[in-house]
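dumping the sequnces here before i forget
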Amino acid sequence: MSETTQFRVMDFDCPTCATTVERALSKVNGVESVEVHYSTGRVEIQYDTQIADPITFEQTIANQGYTPQSA
Amino acid sequence: MKGSGINAQLVTRYYRKHRKAIIVSVTGLLYAGGWSLGYLTTLDTTSTTLLILAALVGGYDIAKTAYHEVKSRTLGIKTLVTLAAVGAIGIGSYWEAAAVVFLFALGSYLEGRTMRKTRNALEELLEMTPDTATVRRDGEQKEVPAREVEEGEIVIVKPGEKIPVDGDVVDGESAVNQAPVTGESAPVYKAQADGVYAGTVNQEGALEVRTTGAGSDTTLQRIIRRVEEAQEAQSPTESFIDRFAKYYTPGIIALSITAYAFTQNAILSLTLLVIGCPGALVIGPPVSIVSAIGNAARNGVLMKGGEHLERAGKIDLVAFDKTGTLTKGETIVADVAGFDTKASDVLELAAIAEKKSEHHLGEAILNAAQSEGATITDGGTATIQTDDAVATDARPLPDPDDFDVVPGKGVVAQYDGCEIVVGNRALLDEREIGLPEDVAVYVRERETRGETAVHVVRDGVVIGAIALRDELRETAPSVIAQLQDTGIETVMLTGDNERTARAVAEEVGIDDYRAELFPEDKQTVIEEFCEAGHVVAMAGDGINDAPSLATADVGVAMGAAGTDTAIETADMALMADDLERIPYAVVLSKATRWNVYENVGLAVLTVTILLAGVLTSSVTLALGMLVHEASVLAVILNGMRLLRH
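..and the predicted 3d for all of it:
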């Protein structure tokens, strides 16, 4: 089953930071599509609920040095 | 021990929340300590240790992100800063390494903080909707989560409470503050059958509301979604800079490698890398646009996106639809004249003929005939009926036996064995009906007052005329003047005849007008303006004017709060039915366009000066870093000015 979840990252300090997070998230197993927006800090992930879960996404974002908040 | 456990927890939580600030402060202290020891004393080893520590503490997070940047094959400033710091330590310039790391960490901390403010502009809106709603279920009042209210359920809103759902009032009356949705500061009176929006505040009396939308299906939520989409959409300047950066960044790397090959000076080439980063350039335009769109949303103006905002900044001509935009859109009968016939009979016959018509002039005639309070004169001064009179004194009128609409001209009806024609001069000409001079004089006289006159004909003889008026909005003349002050040409589009149009145009002070237009003609007129090289905005109601709104460079839909299509499609949607938002939006767009230019200019200027400074060896690594970070902060702060425009 495919589902969509959202996070907010308020501490992106440059557009490249958003790109880096987007690439990292897209490499997580089970992720179908990712959108990360520098301007609003909105992260939208479409994923397969059988393989991936939102906690992994939060960890991935945190690993890059940013603070995810649930939207 | 229990106490210390709680303390440790508190400390951890505090640390997590303020991690970046703590790291920046510690790095700063270590750096200051190391630098002053090295400068003031001979404790060189201690000084070096402190400086390296500063670089490590401040640099850990930067290096971690740099690692991910490299891994995901993006080339970001953090990779360059890490390279610069490592390189500086490698050649023994500990002071430079610590300075670069500290300045960068401080800079990004401040940038993150200020950007958060920009991103939070929408949060006020998000917090508007209450979490719970009081619904009537099975005869009992029950508190439930607002998003679980179903369509058709009755929600009770006490005075002082926020309305939790979109709906129609079924009981009670009150003043409602609609500022969160429409940006209007004055409360709006609401009674039975009036629509209310989630997130607005019920100020006076209790209301019972039948739900039409809850949860994510409310006007406020739609607005928020639209605003976010708008903020995320790239403007043409942003896309251009993105494309430019693709070549620029590798160019800077090539330059620094070349510089190293020629000078063997590692610090010089590292400095080039750091100051060459297009930081202010890529951050500037999105900050300006996000701030402007956020500001507009709080004032009840939805902008479709950066692209439209940049285009709106170039508007040099605003076309207004007359009816409902410059005027109130409430047509009333101003006067009835009978010629050898009683005026009341003229009105009654016209009303019967128009009974099945859905034209707004027909409706006004019908309303006037049905209201007994109507005072009818023979070509004298205008008398105006109020809506109340219509509502209370409606009297039945017979149906016409037969009825035909002649589009753009009037109606032809059969009643009681007679043929009744109600229409304009064109309809009379078409049917070869002669116009007596006294009627023509009357009609001309009413038209020069900005009124629209229709002729009433019974069996080929003109028996009278009815003058109709649609009052100007009080704000219209000052809105036109404000636009003219900013150097914008204004044009009125109307279906009225030449004389009426000229009178209204003069009254409102508009530059130009186009009269006798059919709805499809308006679109053609807009096309002509565009082809003539104007950047054209068209203001209209979003439904009838949809084609011309779409044709214009910037379509401005008025009173969009109630119409979802207008919110979704208009380039600019004014949530309130308030003409004064038009100059506001135009001025904001112009300010945004300048702001973007300022930011791009500042960024290019900074990089150029720094590059020249580095190549002539007058700018060091630390100074370069300081100026670079300062320029990034400067463009963010400049962009944020638009939040308070």
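The helical segments of chain A are 15-26, 54-63.
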